[in-house]
Amino acid sequence: MGRYVAQRLMLAVLTLFLVTLIVFTLLRVVVPLLYADAVDLLAGEYGRNDPELTRRLREQYGLTASLPTQYLTWLGQVLRGDLGRSLFNGRPVAHEIRDRLPVSFELGLVGLLSGLLFSVPMGVLSAVRQDRWPDYVLRSLAILLNATPGFWLAILIITFGSLWFHWAPPLDFAYLHDDPVRHIKIMLLPALLIGLTPSAGLVRIVRTQMLEVLRQDYIRTAQAKGLDGRAVVLRHGLRNALIPVVTVVGLSLPGLIAGTALFESIFTLPGMGQYLVSSVGNLDYPVIQSTNLIFATLIVTANLLVDLSYTVLDPRIRY
């Protein structure tokens, strides 16, 4: 087990290194060839008429050095915990991420937990009541939710809420430590909407896995011994059916955190997604590279934790 963990950690470090290299190459080589670079956007019309201004900006931001030197300089800063400063507002990227990452993490985590609280019981009920009316209703609901984009529902809720009930989400964001009640009011609706789409898929996965487990010999043996039906389903069936669910959940959390940009824009939340989208429009190199590194770290960490959790759920699994 220890050897496996060490190998996975080495692979994780290599993966993160490749991510930084690919993102750096795309930003500093491919995008300038196809579109423009950050200095061109910063200088604007003045830069086109004043090449000296463009040259000074490139020297100021360290863009006159060779590409390997720029990459190694940025990587060395990251290893020291310095993510640089935004090219457009001069603010430290680390401070911005420190303020914004908890918002996106809370949004994705609460959305995932709300989806789990809905999908796992509904999937178990659908499997236990197979081919009966609860099964048909829950499967139809799962298909409907899977086909309904959460951001579309968010737009509808805001639009019709303002027209019919004179309601709109608060525009001024409040952090949890400043105003807990206002914070919950702001975050609850987008978090629930984010969890809709993954919960629909999880209902079907839980149902499929539970049906497969409930047909196993050890389940029939437990039933033949006279164990309570609820204990057979929850203690013996659900635990073994959760392995694929844990995989999906573990790999969904980073995606939920990274994919909150639409909801953060709709509800004006100061999260990582909105920060990344605005920085891409400005070609803000330090912000784009740092946020991508954060998201990649979350995904790699989630992969590792999911693999290690298998032995907890099923002691038969050994690496």
What's the arrangement of secondary structure elements?
Layout: H1 2-34, H2 38-49, H3 51-60, H4 67-79, H5 93-128, H6 133-146, H7 150-164, H8 180-194, H9 196-214, H10 217-224, H11 229-258, H12 261-266, H13 272-282, H14 285-313
Helix pairs in contact: 1-14, 2-3, 5-6, 5-8, 5-9, 5-11, 6-9, 7-8, 9-11, 11-14, 13-14
Can I get a quick summary?
The chain has 14 helices and no strands. The chain is mainly α and 319 residues long.
How would you explain this protein's 3D organization?
The protein has 319 residues and is mainly alpha-helical. It has 2 domains: 78 residues, no CATH class; 209 residues, MetI-like (MetI-like fold, Orthogonal Bundle), CATH 1.10.3720.10. It has 14 helices and no strands. α11 packs antiparallel against α14. The longest helix is centred in the middle third of the chain and has 36 residues.
In total, the number of strands is 0
Helix/strand-derived category reads mainly alpha
Q: Multimeric state of these chains?
A: single chain
**Integer average pLDDT:** 79
What name does the CATH topology of the largest domain carry? MetI-like fold
Helix content class: over 70%
Number of domains: 2
Overall form: globular
Largest sheet: none
Keywords:
319 residues; mainly alpha; MetI-like fold
